[in-house]
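ok so i was messing around last nite and threw this chain in just to see what happens. nothing serious, just curious
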Amino acid sequence: MQAWRVHRNGEPSEVMRLEEVDRPEPGEGQVLLKVRAANINFPDALLCRGHYQVTPPLPFTPGVEICGETEDGRRVIANPALPHGGLAEYVVADEAALLPAPEALDDAEAAALHIGYQTGWFGLHRRAHLQEGDTLLVHAASGGVGSAAVQLGKAAGARVIGVVGGPDKAAVARELGCDVVLDRRSDDIVAGVKEATGGRGADVVYDPVGGDAYAKSAKCVAFEGRIVVVGFASGAIPSPALNHALVKNYSIVGLHWGLYNQRDPRAVLRCHETLTEYAAKGLIKPLISDRVAFADAADAVQRVADGSTTGRLVVLPEGAAA
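result:
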């Protein structure tokens, strides 16, 4: 079969190579899946660079999220077992963790449902306890992670303020349903949030960016607000001033969604059932900005690494309908 492999760490476009390899062999409790679509996540870029918390042995295949097909024809969502990632024709995955792909979503959309939307749901509901009528501030609102949080926030009845970088991304955020859109390149984020909330600030902040985004969030979070730390796409990990959190009476909560897979897998299944219902009702639908040919996968991972994309890039196998 064909698979994209990384033999040394570096930028994805430089280190990913398309090769002919043997199909991976399932271990105990695993199944072989044919890849129908592979969603590209920022962790795939970090894996290539050697900067992710998981460091598979070289050579490895990136791709942490797919829609696949079992040998008996079932369409499922899975996280491939590294080092045999999803940018390949076949993968192996833990059988117990397979989830049925929602009928309301096509292969590309189903491939983009799992990590981003699970992260959003657990972050907003389990960690931040988002309530109907709350104001939710979402950084990188037009990106893959942010767009999921925007849709989930609207589904929960929140008022959503989206922060983006540039007019094109602002247009995407408005189409997603953001009630207010702020452009970090031209707008004063802190002043904009306070103006939009009558001086109160945001009840919940969803931050996959870190760095300056976090610093601004701390200045416009509401009394008893919650800042959810999801990731550090900016590359800068902030050092919160805990005296500031004390004086302003807000919470800083972290979210590592992968821990739920280990500690509470039943909660992951319940969340998937909720997301499936949302998809059937049209409340959520992954924003697929590009359906990428398999031969162009390395370029697509690089685009995600560079932060130049909106929504999700999904790689489709040869011969798949775009």
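not much to say yet. The CA atoms of residues 32 and 299 lie 27 Å apart.
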